[in-house]
Design goal:
The protein has about 110 residues and is an all-alpha fold. Helix content is about 55%, strand content about 0%.
Length: about 110
Amino acid sequence: MNEIHRINPPSSVVISERKYPVITNEPTWSQIFAGLRSNDYKLLLQSTAVGAPIGYWIGLKSNSTRHGMIVGMLLCGGAGLAQVVQVSAARLLGVLENGPEYKQFVERPGK
């Protein structure tokens, strides 16, 4: 009963059937940021704005509300940026709906 079972996490997630067309299998940073939608920018601004009052509230305990607000905005903004990058990459990989990105990257005007 004292056996140690080693669990190796997968190095990547393999999706056999995707609902939407794959734009690229390995999106670059420039493709990810070029494929941002207005909702992505809204999410990034909202998460940064939520960080200010949270940081202010935490900073009240140590009388450093200004620094608390800055740190809260940086932390929540970083979390929002991670979420935005993940959603944009998922659209490029065909996991989420990607109609506008497909037109932008694949069906270029003039072809």
